[in-house]
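User: Some background: our group keeps a shared notebook of sequences we're curious about, and every so often someone picks one and asks for a predicted structure to add to the entry. Today it's my turn. The entry only has the sequence so far, pasted here. Could you supply the structure so I can complete it?
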Amino acid sequence: METVRVYKVRMYDIQNDELRVYRRMATEQGAAMRAGTIVEGSMVEISPSQLEPGMQWTARDFSPRVTVGFQRQVI
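Assistant: Of course. Here's the predicted structure to add to the notebook entry:
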């Protein structure tokens, strides 16, 4: 099965003038596209189908531990 590595990404929040962890996980290429930096130790392998169609990142508030069905808990 093919997998893709995604990471938590830290990006600059212009509204609050601070660095924040992005609500989406992204591939290395996706992080670079958004001018973000990868959070060390946050790598997770997922199926490419879990990325947004045609993009290098996941949906907002993506939880890699929930792969099927409705997400019932916040991790």
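Suggested note for the entry: The helical segments are 28-33. The longest helix spans residues 28-33.
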